[in-house]
């Protein structure tokens, strides 16, 4: 299965996928293209060093969201992409895009959804006084961080944590969880019954 990875920043989740692929742990998934909506971000360099096509589709260059998404779809289509991973991609995708890949778009979020959706999830957890948070990998639908949950991992909030330290520990779990989910998706092992995701291992 050819996979397209959409990024916006440093690309640590992308690196986890690239490393898993290099170890032979992502098959039958294959990263076919990396697309950033921002020029010059570190994720593009990670893709290039791994020998992956790296493309910038700057959302600021488009008059509206639909034309931006049409360009994304064209780039993905040119590489035969069958599934999409949002790896720190900081744009909300509309149904116009999502409906082209039904149950084939996965996203990571740094909380135990449905708790703390949106931005700054680690800071939200600290402000709430939570004792436990974590990360979620979920299918993308038309809602903000609201698609069917595929997998989660817990992270304890420690005394003295700030958002940076907590986020770093959450990311380590994301890096472990995301490649495993992508491999299972590509292998046809994930099924969605209503909003319940079933691993067909």
Strand order of the largest sheet: 3-2-1-4-5-6-7
Tally of individual domains: 1
Quaternary organisation: single chain
Please give the radius of gyration in angstroms. Answer: 16 Å
Principal-axis shape equals globular
The second-level CATH architecture is 3-Layer(aba) Sandwich
| Class by alpha and beta content | alpha/beta
State the total count of DSSP E strands: 9
- Unreliable spans are none
In whole angstroms, the N-to-C terminal distance is 18 Å
| Name of the top-level CATH class | Alpha Beta
Q: Write the CATH homologous superfamily.
A: Formyl transferase, N-terminal domain
What can be said about the biggest beta sheet?
7 strands, mixed
Helix content: 25-40%
User: Could you spell the SSE succession in H and E letters?
Assistant: EHEHEHEHEHEEHEE
How large a portion of the residues is in β-strands, by DSSP E?
15-25%
Query: So how many helices?
Result: 6
Summed over residues and divided by their number, the pLDDT gives a mean of 96
As for the CATH topology, it is: Rossmann fold
